[in-house]
Structures are given as structure tokens and as C-alpha cells.
## 1
Amino acid sequence: MDRIEQRIREAVKDLFHKDRVDLVIGFREGSLPLKSRPVFVRSEDMADDLVWNAFCRGNLAVYLPKLFPPQPQRDEDKKPYPKIGLVAKGCDARSIIGLIKEHQVHRDNVVIIGTPCLGMVDKEKVEAVMDGDAAAQCTEGENGIFHITGISGTKKSVPGEEIFADSCLECPCPLPEEADVQIEGESRKPAAKKYEQVETFEARSSEERWQYFVDEIATCIRCYACRQACPNCYCNVCFTDQTKPRWNGPGDDLSDLMLFHIGRIFHQAGRCVECDACVHACPMGIDLRLFTRKLGRDVEELFEYVPGRPEEQPPLCVFRMDDNQDFITEP
Amino acid sequence: MAAHVVRKADLKKFINAVKKKNTFLGPVSRKGDVTLAVVGLDDELVLSYSNFKLPPKTLLFPKNELISTYDDNGMVEVLPSEGEVVIFGIRPCDVLSLLHLDKVFLDEEFVDPYYQERRRNAVVVALACTEPMKTCYCTSVGGSPAGEEGADVLAFDLQDALLFEGCSEKGRAFMKTYADYLQKPTKADLASRNKISSEAPKKITPINVTGLTDKLEEHFESSLWEESAQPCLGCGVCTFTCPTCHCFGLHDEQYGQRGIRMRVHESCMFPSYSLEASGHNPRNANWERMRHRIMHKFHSTVRNFGDIFCVGCGRCIANCPVNLDIRETVAEVLHE
């Protein structure tokens, strides 16, 4: 880990030195245990702020679309787009590829600093391991064992696999594709793509599935952290925020919550790279992963499309004579 | 009424007696979290929590509140009708936040009837903190883990018993009503109570807010705002989990010739909050909105109400998806 961190810093310094970037987005040390946080590195001497550890959760690609505003919204002096380096895990890189395909990011202006990922720690899993004693410190030791100390002094040592986020345990591609600069280091093995959780959910009756959905989203506080943390949610004005006309009520009435969540989830079909930035951002611990993956799986089955791979075009952008049409039903 | 105790073995009897007369809200387990909710028949009180995920403001100022209905004959105001509610388990920082909200909603000139009705009917039984969190700094903004300010009754968790102290007329009357269930505390009870109130504050890392209000005014145009807000995603976690944030919007829903008017929580971190009808937005950038939020807590409210509208509960720090830490922003402003 430390060596990866050192290599990232050196690579970033080199990029600045060669004038290949104006800005690098990476992670720096957080103010709380189990948290590293995004940092905007604008010069060579800031590169030493960068860290790499098992707490670099969240998807940094979320910042990119704002840095590439479409023409009519750009400053009058039409400055050229900045050159941006991004310390990218596999999931961040998949999102960047998605954003390039959707013409939100200019490929030539992005330097993907591909960083091998072993998995990121899920705070809630740590809480469960600690039996309610909040973690005061968590450090990675030898052989991927994490040593956690609680506020009241409880000490636990657990293997990373027990506390890594589900999105990491099921990650199809922990080593970023399409990297412009590849950081050397060990990454976790790609998981065989499995939809066990989704299949278990699908096997339940429609009443049970509906009830689960309702129970999960009923706790939503409409903070939109899920939307804001998602690289795919770059709409200028989200449908749920529009007021002329107002498609959706603003409060926590169940029907309004449903409309927002169904809208959000459907807009992710065939686009979500399953990084779980939304899950990580949600303060209420809503199981957003299951619902989004369900639609991801449908797209994979119907159109043989997996988002985040450079060579494939999104299903809505291509037409094939043998496209699946099962979803078209008689009224 | 001086301090009294209820042994944990007798707690259920006491609560059942309260429940007979009032709605009783307390810390109960819901979906793996300890939540402040109406205590049901099968619920056990859970006392092993640091604080609730969401602040108590929603009890007095709900996220979604029907305030009036209208039709061809005019408008009818809908006032809350929940009756007396006993709220047990709010932490002292959050109790302090209710005093701040009082200043906004019970202002002499503009009394908010909906808030007023709920506030009048609420008996606040606070629970002193024994284990403050890493994100707590109540002692720096006028609070204390065992502070009684604003509470009707202050409770202490003494492991085998709960100790209650009446802090207001309402609170003392409440204790008198249930005097049959309360016992005189032993010397050991009082000793452990004092241990909590003297030990807990020591576990808190204070922050400095001296001179902050003036500094904010001075550095309104500073470049620090744009820099420190760079990672901000622009979600509403900080405002919706803040116990003192109290902004709301009005929202009408029309069904033919009749309709309802609702009051819904709003967040100054959303662009739509400050968007004007012309299409102009005076706080168009994320950093301007973040500056506004910090200014409102540590500057405007100090000028308007004489109080910092932050109680140091640490929710905005703990819940921010990108770990923006208000303590650091405050320190940066003071350092300018």
C-alpha cells in the first residue's frame, strides 16, 4: 500500500513536470477513522498530500463532467478545457469510460492514473464487526489483516475480505482498463460476475419484493447524496428538481420517494458501473445496490452489454436486427 | 423536585404509566439503528447509542407537514393535533438546538403556530452523554454532555438505574405526576451521576470559535471558500441532518377545485433553493452555497439572534460523503 502511495505521488509529480496535467484529483488523509477524502492537486508540491489506502471509497469521476461544461455554458473567453489527471481505481476508470462514451468528458484531456485496488473498507461492516463500538482507529497490517481499535478500547483484527464493501467483493475489474499511466502493484482478482443477491430477490413474490423496496426507500430523507455522488448523474437539472412542470413532489411522501428512486434507478440501467458511490454516500443505509444491479443485470441479459468497457457501444446507440424485443408487449 | 431514580427492572412499569397518558417517544431499534420513535408494545428501550442519526427537529417541524387545505370556500389552517408528547433520550446538544429553533419559530413578532403547538405539547426528557463521539464538540459552542439547558427533565444512565432531575416547571410537574414510580437516589447513585457529568466533557476535543463571527465578515471574499469547497458534491446531507437547519419551502398540491399546502424542508446546498424566478441564481456555485451555510451558522444567526446556530453534534462531519469537516473550515477561517 505504502509503495503504491509513493508511486502515485511520483507519477503525479512527473505529470506536472511534463506539463501533462493542470489538475489531479486523488485522495488525501481524512479527518475521521475509515475515511480518506478527495483532494484537488494543482501543483507538483501538493502531490505529497496524496494517499492510497483501503479507505479511498467514493468515485472520483463524479467531478469530471463539471470540469467539461458544454459549449453554451462556458466562460466567454473560451479557455481551453483543463487537462485532468485522476487517480482511478477500477470503478473510477469504468465511470470515466462511460462518461467519454456519453460525450461528457474529452478523452484527450483526461489522464487516467490507473491504480491497482485490493478493495475498500465498508464503514458499516466495520461497525458490525465492532459490535457497536465506533472505530477510533483502523490500520492495515501484514497479509491484508486490518487492526481496529474502538472508542471504548475494544480491539479486533479481521481480514479485509470481511470488511470490504460488497461492490469490491463483486468487482469485475479491480485493475483499471484504458490507463494512461499505470501504477505498479497488486490488485484483487476480478470476481466472477455473479448476481446471487439479485437472483434471491427475483425469486421472491412480487408482494415481498415491493414491500422490500418500500421499506428501504421509506427512510430516504431526499438529501440526494446518492445522485450527487454518482458520476452518471450529471444532468443540468434533475427531473426531480424541475418545477415547470413539477414532475415530483419535494417531500417525504411515499409516492414522491418512489418516483424519485424509480427514476434514478431506471436512468442507471446499462450505465451503472456498480461502484456503489451512492451506497457509500447514503446517510440512511438504503440498499440501493440491489435495485440498480437488478436493472444492470436485465440490460446485460437482454442486450449483452456491460457498461464501463471501452470497446462496446451502449445499447441505445446501436441498432441490430437481432436486438431483443421481448420487452415490447401488447397493450 | 430533586433527583429521583427508576431502577432498570422497574423501567417498563414507569414507561407504561407514561404511555397511558401521553404519546411516548424513545430510543428503539429500527432496521439495525437506534431511532427516536414511538415506543410500541414490543419495543425495548435501547440506551447504548451515541446519538440518533437524525436530529429531533423533525418532531416539532416535520419534514413534510400539511399546514392548510383550500377549496372554493377559502383556506383552512390545519394545526397539529398530536396532544402531549413525552420525548425521551434526546442528547443535550440536540436539546440546545430546540432553544435555537425557538428563536426562529417563536419570535415575538412572527410566531409559527404549527411549531408552537408541538413545542407546547412536548415534554423533553434529555439523556446525558457518557461516551461522546470523535465528532462531538458541544463544549465549544455553549453545550455540555450533561447540560440541562432547555431540557424539562435531564436523565442519567447509571447502568442499573435511570436518574431524573427536573429542570423546568413542566419537567418538575411531569415528575410529580409519576412520583409513585420514582425513588430517592442512594449516595452511590448520586456519585455515579456526578462522575458522568465531570468525566464526559473531558472526552471531547474542543474547537476554537473565538472571534469567528467577525472573521467571517472580514473574509467573505476570501479564496479559501472556493478551495475548501472543491470536493463538495452538493448534496443535502449536512443540512438535513443538522439539528438547527430550519429552512423550508411551501408546496401546493392541487386536485381539481381543491388543494393542500405543505411545508417541506429545504436545503441551501441545493441550487433550486436560491434560484430566482428570472432564472438568475445569486448562489450559483457550490462554494457560494457552502459559504452561505457556514455564514448562516456562525455569522447571521449570531447577528440576528445572538447565538451560534451550531450545537456541535457532529452529524454533518460524520455523514458527509466526502468527509468535509466543518471544524477544519472554521479553523481555516480563523487562520486567515
## 2
Amino acid sequence: MSTDREHEITRAFVSIANSMADGTDVVDLLSGLTSDCARLLDIASAGLLLADGHGVLHVLAASSERTRDLEIFQLQRDEGPCLDCFHTGQQVSVDDLSQETDRWPQFVAAATAAGFAAVHALPMRLRGTTLGALNLFGDTAGALEADDLDLAQALAHVASIALVTDKATSDQGTINKQLQAALTSRVAIEQAKGVLAQLGRLDMDQAFAVLRRYARDHNARLSDVAHQLVSRTLAAEQLLDRSMTRPSPEIRSKA
Amino acid sequence: MDSIAELRAGLGGAMDNGDPTMSMADRLCHACVALLDVDGAAISLMLEGSSQGTFGSSDGLSRDLDEFQFTFGEGPCMDALRQGGPVFAEDLADAAETRWPAYVGSALGLGIGALFALPISLANSYVGALDLYRRAPGPLLGNSLLGGLMAADLAALPLLDMISAEAELATSGKDEPAWTQLASLARVEVYQATGMVMAQLGVGPADALARLRAHAFAEGLTASKVAWSIVGRELSLEPDNGRTDPGGRHS
């Protein structure tokens, strides 16, 4: 069990490191990070907020829909531990949300309604700048093991480096541009999923799989394929035809 | 930090409950002049297949300046759209400013020393620009720049109403504050539904988002609710003389 977990942890780091080397999409990278956290740590799900060029936060990834909703709720109400973490650049760890109704009255009510009892928000920092926050949500009250917190913080840290390591970056302007590009990519990817879902009668997860497989098969970036699809320089049929005539990625990858 | 919150509240508040005799776009332009280090503001719309031109302004001079760009076919607003980023001309009288010879001549003639064009994006495509004018030359700095960027975000709302085939219904959506409306349009299900509407209607992202929003207004629903119905395939928007079928098609 613990060997499995160590193996998984190693795999998570390697996958982030690889993404730096091969220029994997930021959205892909961060979605992976939230699902890695949800799987590896003693938490129910994870979400990730990233700031754009004006310092406005956006939900970039979430391992579950209820987490995504709760992250958006915090942004809309301008209240909650994930925002405090981003603004202070410090970890905000709450083992029992029911004790914090004075601190975040609206957030605690919403989190409780969504079935969450504990939250741990970790800053994504790079060279003194807070880029965003990685947020872990637990179904039951109780402290997260120090090891788990360290592991999550390390993953967040490596992901921060991967985020801006694409090109040599020394100034805040370039970092902002890359984060903006990441946010823009996410919109295009969601729109592309919608186009594929409609034309191929797929659900959103299947549509994402089709998009990702096409990008991998063509050695293209996910966001580039999404942009082409949305701007209609690439026909959706090209992706959908392939997906119907080819075996599933699980079978292929084992072959 | 406080002044940023004040800027946000001031710009958003102008959209939510300003002078009801003015359009939302005009009110936003007036708020820019009141809150930022500029003397005039105008919003232009440049969408393929839709009307192009000045859409809101703080005064007649700003409107004229904006329209010169369409007359001459050159100007910072057009460049901002093409480049997908802000275009600044801090000193129009500088001999090194050679980007828009005809336009700059007219602007100088009207006593303008500096201008700043910030692109407005809708559903990831650039559809217009917020043009800020100042009599005195010099850069747009600090909170004025930040406020300009915020105003360019907000300007997406009146542009959406404008693009929408059912713009007249937009008045029914005013109970939600502008920043909340923007936030709800930035939800993931709205992006996904926008993609589905693009495929259903064969239109671009900005048009698809406008149609989705128009449908929400018509039905008294939030954009998010409509998006869920589309993603859940309970609702499909259909081309119908360029208008959204009020009931939609339920399958």
C-alpha cells in the first residue's frame, strides 16, 4: 500500500517534470496536479486558483465539480481561506471549518452545504510572487498529516516552476503573460470540448479525451488544437472521425 | 489596496445604477473620466459580420475621435484588436509617432495629446476596444492603467448585449451587479455551452455567448442555468431568423 503510494508520488513529480521538458499544456498540468492531490492525500478533492495579469483570481482546475463550485463561490463573494492564502502568500490550514463561522460566514455555510469539513490552502509562489493557491478540501474534520501538507506544498511548488519555465522568465510582465495565456487556453479548451460534445454526441469527459488524443497523436499542444477548433481552422470531424475508427487510448498504450 | 477596491466599486457601480437615461456603455465611459487620469473615453465595437463603430462615449469629442478611426481605417483601437493587447500613444505630437499619420493629425487638431486603446474580449475573441483620451501627453500609470483594464473587462457586458439578436431584452437582466454577471459568464459550464452553441448554430464564440446570454435574459434565468441546460442537452438554441427560439427545443 505504502509502496504503491510512493510509486504514485514519484509518478506525480515525474509527470510535472516531464511537462517542463516537453512543453505540456498548463491546463493539462494543473488538472493533473489537482487529481494527483485528491488521489495521494487524505482529502476529498482539490482545486487551483491562478491570478491573471490584473491580479484577479480564476479557477483553473478542480478535481471535482463541487470543488469548482466552491472555488467560484469564494471568488464571487470575495471571502474564504483560498483567497486569504493568495493575498497573504501563507498557508491557511483549517482542520474544522465549523469553528470558523466568524472568520468566513458565507464560505463556511457554502462549504458545509457542499459536504466539506476541513480546508487547507497552499500558496503557489515563485520568486517572491504569489501566482495562485492550491486548495485541498476534506470531507471530515481533522488535521492533515504534516507529511501530506509538505507533499502538497512541494507539488504546488514544482508546478509553479513548471508554469513559468516555458521560456526564460525574469520579469513579472512575462510571468503575467504566461498566466494569461494559461487562462485563455482553458477557455478555448472548454469551448472546444463543447463543440466536440455537440457534434460527436459525447459527454464532456469523452470530448476531452478525443481532444487530448488528437493532440498527442499529432504531437501538438492541447491548447493549440483547441484554438484551431474554436477558430474553425480545424474541422471537428477530423478529430471525431479518428476517435471512432481508432481503439481506445488504454488499449493502444499497452500495445 | 483600498483605492483598487474603490476603483472596482466605482466602475462596477456606474454600470449597475448610474443615470438611467444613459446607456450602460456611456455610463462606463463617464466613470472612466471621473475615476482615471483621462479626459475622454469611448467604446468601439469591431466584430466581423456585426456593425462596427462607436458604441458608447463620455462626450461628443471622444465620439468624434473614435469615429475618425473608422473614417481613416487606422488607429490605436484597430491595432489593439489586431494585436490582442493594449496600444498606447503617450505623446501624439512626438515626431517619432508615425503609426497612424492621418488619424493622429485629426486628434492633434482636436487638442488631444495622448491616447490609450485597451482591447475588449468576449469568449476569448477580441470584439472591441476601450479608447481613453487625454489632452496632456504622458503615460497611463498605476491605478489609472489598472482601472482602464478593469473598465475594458466590464465593457464586455454592453458589447454582448449589442451583439445579441435580442438586445432589447437586455434591460431585464439588470438586477445582477455587473461584476457578478461577468463572473457568472466566466464559469466553466458557460464556456462548454458556448462551444455547443457554436456547433449548433455555426457561429463564432462571441456570437454564441451573446445568444446564450440573450436566452437567459428572455427566460429570466442566469447564464449559468441556461448553460447547464445546454450541456445537459435539455435545451438547444436554433437559428431562427437570427433570433433565439424563446422556448428552445427540448429533446
